Amino acid sequence: MINIKIICVGDLKEKYLREYEAEYVKRLSKYCKLEIICLKDEKLPTTLNESNINIVKEKEGQAILQKLNNINNSFNFVLDEHGKEFTSVELSEKLAKIPTEGNSTITFVIGGSLGLSENVKKSANVLLSFSKFTFPHQMIRIFLLEQIFRAFKINSGETYHH
């Protein structure tokens, strides 16, 4: 059974998002060993300028990279607005191929509300974009869980994707 890890900055604050997450965690338990690693988001300064934004992204990035460095043999998807967009079928094909290439873990990284440091982006095997739209990073976690679930359903030949 493949290991899937999701490293994300910040907690899900809304009850309905926590319920969605719990539902997808339950559904995915049939297909993979899933671990969601939530990191503390840095407190935002009262004045946001480029310097302050970079400081926050670097601090959060250091915490992400520390977690990534503790995961052996991982293929890393880092979510970034400038990344590659996949269809659900393309993502399912990619996820099915990764274990055959020698990786025992697939890790997804979701940054904080200000984005990711360049060092985290450089750690990616694939920079992944969900859309050219901007979404709250908390909702992206739910979208990601749903797409991972959809990928496993597609790869299992089960009806879910039309």
In a few lines, what is going on in this structure?
42% of the residues lie in helices and 23% in strands. By secondary structure, it is of the alpha/beta class.
Description:
The chain has one domain (2-155): SPOUT methyltransferase, trefoil knot domain (Alpha/beta knot), CATH 3.40.1280.10. Helix content is 42%, strand content 23%. The chain is built from 5 helices and 5 strands. It has a 5-stranded parallel beta sheet, with helices on both faces. The two termini are 26 Å apart. The mean pLDDT is 94.
Looking at CATH, the homologous superfamily is: SPOUT methyltransferase, trefoil knot domain
Q: How many E-type strands?
A: 5
Order of helices and strands: EHEHEHEHEH
Give the end-to-end Cα distance, rounded to a whole number of Å.
26 Å
**Any idea how many domains?**
1
SSE topology sketch:
Elements: E1 2-9, H1 15-28, E2 32-39, H2 50-69, E3 74-85, H3 88-97, E4 105-110, H4 118-122, E5 126-129, H5 137-155
Parallel strand pairs: 1-2, 1-4, 3-4, 3-5
Helix pairs in contact: 1-5, 3-5
